Structure to design on (1516 residues):
């Protein structure tokens, strides 16, 4: 069965659009058939040509695209939204209302109200909606979920997660003058109420939820802006429904960390540590405290992560594959849906619209707590 | 100049007493001349004999010891107190009042009032008072202090420190039935209001203070007791006087961590990480984010840490040497004092009575914050 | 400019064929237009269908394919050979004689004579010939070459390289009974005179040559077969033309190593270490012995490796990308060639037919040395 | 029972003498009663005074010392020899002939003939003779021996051991002009036929023998002198009696390695890795290839290493403790001997005179192989 997709955003120079296209190629045989890649019409056209897309299916605006593509016989099976965060809401809405399935970059949108509205539309229209919280796509993150589900670490006692990066230290040190990616992230108009928390803090929230299944009851946060409009660093304490504590830290000014997302979950029978920079490993400490290094592709690895596993052990996989794994699962589910087959819970092993809503709620609670002198906020 | 010392606590079977004696031997040529090693007279006597101490100078109780030893011509130059925490106050007090210098195990005592009283007595009597917050003794902790002082990491932006251990997981899992060390730590009578925070959380507080010079303005804490009287796990957010945030976590039930004390200090020009289990290394990330591994004993290492450095690079030093380094500095200061030489700030590079007081205050603030549903407490 | 390719070997179930196709997709926009994917016609046809290849261009044998495809107007620009090692020679030969450019899996072929003949044909016919020694494709391997070329480590004093794996320990322990990949590797008919040395030892030889430029003058080897026909473990000492010593070890029975290829090059001004399992890092020790961790994508990285760099620092790349990097360079060179542009040395930054020849020579010298009770063999 | 010792060499400024004295203090309660610490009489006297040794028992030369001390009622129970290598033979000989037990720094002496003579004297006179091959004293090296003995890794398939240091790179780069430690090591008169092989290569040989029990049948070596009289780097292949291969590399010019002694032993059921710079850990890979980190002091650790274990897990031990562990065992054996108790094999768990002899043989075979253009030499 042939699956087609279209894209809003992601012209040739854009980082994340390229990642999505490569990931889709790695995941499955899916064809890019139309797009509105840029507000700049030349860039838009050029991107379309590069991907051998029929010129008639390159659109100047996403609204026309939604309406026109909806009429096609070979209409796209899903739309990939990789535009700046402030536009996700309107784009996702119009495409859903025209019956398109969606894969949207995170965060889903700006406000909780918007998020809830999108969720409602998605449910009413039976939309298969994916949100690319990338880190849930890593094989060993899936294996971490499996081991926790299978009681390998017992009852969870503490979650300790950090996501330090250092790429905005130059912004902090005022070395950045021209317009660029940094400016976009730290600009309220495009990024909303938050920079670091929305960009990376939310990955902690989502990935911890994915591996542990824990729900946040309340949280308390301190964010640091260092004179800028938006946050560059945040410490967040969370209390889950079962009373367990999670300690989250995210930063874009922590020198020495290229992309140091690390999750540790401590149970009474074992603990697990996953580190994004070496994503093929998963560290397991048993009840005697002995730390072992588990590796993707090894014979002892089992469960859902095998559905997305590709190369043999010791042949490193990375960011492209994590993205690809989300798409692999998403497209597989899409095929079943198109085939009128029932979708089982394991078919839906990717972040969905409800995860997207919770992501937006988390961000707002963090910023509110900080504003109120770091008090506890119930979720 | 011959230096003599005596000991209260620390019979032959006691862990920490033995560490102190070995550390003193490693540090300098100092003679053990009297003691009250145990309430059990046989153990007491036996310990004295083992160390060739004159039987007349082994005492049944520390009060008699203080009074009798004060009369000797070759009286001890300092008293080492390595008894359970609940007795530090009374012992330290009577020896100081009899003019003895003191080295006391941490925590200094139970209450802030007791701590302040001891501080007052020490100052009034010109007592050289050391508190063995061990981790300030490590060479590379001293070097970390030096590098921060010399602006190698610029302005501090965030402190992130953890002290996870796993040795009490068996207590949590109820596998411990008989009396033992674990019971002592988790018994209010001997440990006071706290177990984990007082035992290891305080090492975070002291060592961070030592390396950064930052003062805590307020803190917020959640401790977990998991059904026991005393805490086994704690998350603590601190705000320093300059508005920088510190995130502290200590735990005795974190499987996979034998003794995982780690301090990370992030500045706008660099960051530093020290990990207790490999104490000869210090990780430095520069302004480009490049992480380097500095090592004790290398030619580029400079500053105060050279005063305590012993073996060449790559010949590992550890816990004994950290302890020894505190004593080396303490005894050197004692010699100067005895010689009527002026003690310079660098001569006093060991935790003193004021550090001890602040340690007690920290513990009480943490427990109070937790009790009040984790609100902020000013220090 | 549209580039087309065809494939011999690599049906849907084959590991390495799939890797090549995905790598080509990651590298560039190149179209698969014909193939002879399997001796099993059903598998062959099925693979063709999966990739939307015109049925008329799926061939039962590679000879017919070479002759027929040579006649097409839209003939493939290059042929990818991913068949078992014993067939590389005949396949490469006939396609070259019909004017096709080639990318061939390593090792190039079985004997030195065959290798030299292929080299002669390639040169006479101006064939662009790539051999996929994968590890030369990693960004940080390229950067290692750059740093050595730019004298960052001074004169090389010692090379120390190892390639331990553990996947054949079960063969050694006789737990493998059925036919399978293991059997193929350890079967003389398909693998020739060597298993481990030909499979992985040769990666050491090629990658060291790539990063250092050193030529082997003589070598001495001991291989271990543990009762099997072919080698599972080998220790190889090499002396380069300049008198420097290299120490190579490869093994497929070294428990604890998934794919532990590691190269260390020691110079008088610095040293460099690259480890395949964490390929985005490169460890550099300077003249003071300080070890730094360099990372792909960081701002300080420069040189040829930037031509293949894709994702930002800390977003891990792996095996697919290493392969893709070889193809990216190869296809770029092909485009220039097709455009009648002069190919510069930097355009040819991929392992070529001469590397393939040297790889075969190395293998034969190793096996000969071992046979002669481990004497030195001149190359 | 009071144990006394004396020392030849090791004045106050000498590195290794100080290490021995501190190690003895850490190990046991043993008294230093006499010495000939230096050829420089002032240094000699000063050292004696510092250690409160009766002036009458400080000797100008070791011969007088041997004769005079032999007459004393409270004569030393053992003599520690920490003089330059060229003097070990004569000193050990005269003290043994006067009935003294010996602990001698490695290497035992210069020639195989001297070594065999010392061995003969030691046996004829029932001398308890220890040679301080330090690395056999580490707890986790002892545990490694235990695990191998208990078949935890099955049959050994390969040994891979390296001992790289970088402290002589400055010598290589001609930055050292004045007299100093470096000069001593690289001077034939004091160091004999070898520098690096004798200083550190021999630690590989001894420690591998200690942990595996394997005997070397033949070896082949290439050493690099880089223009100096003595070797700074060596690659050594060894074949053990059972046909297994060992690959040894030692270097003093390998930048990035402070003291990087690492031993890896691969068996068909598991593998073990010990690294000197983090000596409290032992890495174990099981039959599935899963790597675990074992740690000194943990509850699962068992066997002989418990006899020397001191601090709890996670409280690092290092070089002092390794040395101390040798002395602890040696002195315990001495006590039993003095008590006329039978010494069991486990009482003699320290390197002895026969190990010393084998060490000298190893060194000579390595240098001979290299001289003969790197041929195999039978041992």
């Amino acid at each position: 069965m042939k699956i087609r997709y279209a894209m809003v955003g992601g012209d040739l120079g854009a980082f994340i659009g390229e990642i999505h296209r490569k990931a889709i190629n790695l995941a499955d045989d899916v064809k890019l058939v139309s797009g509105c890649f840029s507000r700049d019409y030349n860039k838009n056209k050029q991107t379309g040509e590069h991907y051998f897309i029929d010129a008639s299916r390159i659109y100047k605006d996403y609204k026309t695209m939604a309406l026109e593509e909806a009429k096609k016989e070979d209409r796209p099976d899903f739309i990939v939204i990789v535009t700046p965060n402030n536009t996700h809401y309107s784009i996702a809405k119009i495409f859903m209302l025209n019956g398109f399935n969606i894969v949207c970059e995170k965060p889903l949108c700006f406000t909780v109200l918007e998020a809830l509205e999108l969720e409602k539309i998605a449910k009413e229209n039976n939309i298969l909606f994916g949100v690319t919280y990338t880190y849930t796509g890593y094989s060993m993150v899936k294996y971490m979920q499996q081991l926790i589900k299978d009681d390998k670490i017992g009852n969870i006692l503490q979650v300790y997660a950090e996501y330090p990066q250092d790429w905005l230290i130059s912004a902090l040190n005022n070395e950045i003058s021209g317009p660029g990616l940094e400016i976009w992230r730290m600009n309220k108009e495009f990024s909303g109420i938050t920079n670091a928390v929305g960009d990376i803090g939310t990955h902690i929230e989502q990935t911890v939820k994915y591996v542990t299944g824990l729900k946040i009851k309340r949280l308390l946060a301190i964010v640091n802006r260092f004179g800028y409009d938006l946050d560059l660093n945040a410490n967040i304490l969370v209390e889950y429904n079962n009373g367990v504590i999670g300690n989250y830290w995210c930063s874009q000014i922590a020198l020495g960390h290229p992309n140091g997302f690390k999750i540790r979950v401590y149970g009474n029978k074992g603990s697990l540590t996953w580190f994004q920079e070496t994503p093929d490993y998963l560290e397991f400490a048993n009840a005697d405290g002995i730390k072992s290094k588990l590796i993707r592709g090894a014979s002892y690895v089992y469960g859902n992560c095998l559905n997305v596993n590709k190369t043999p052990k010791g042949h490193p996989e990375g960011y492209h594959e994590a993205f690809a794994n989300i798409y692999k699962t998403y497209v597989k589910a899409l095929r079943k849906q198109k085939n009128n087959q029932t979708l089982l819970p394991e078919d839906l092993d990717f972040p969905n619209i409800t995860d997207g809503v919770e992501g937006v709620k988390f961000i707002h609670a963090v910023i509110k707590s900080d504003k109120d002198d770091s008090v506890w906020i119930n979720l």
Notes: The mean pLDDT of chain D is 94. Residues 110 and 192 of chain D are 6 Å apart (CA to CA).
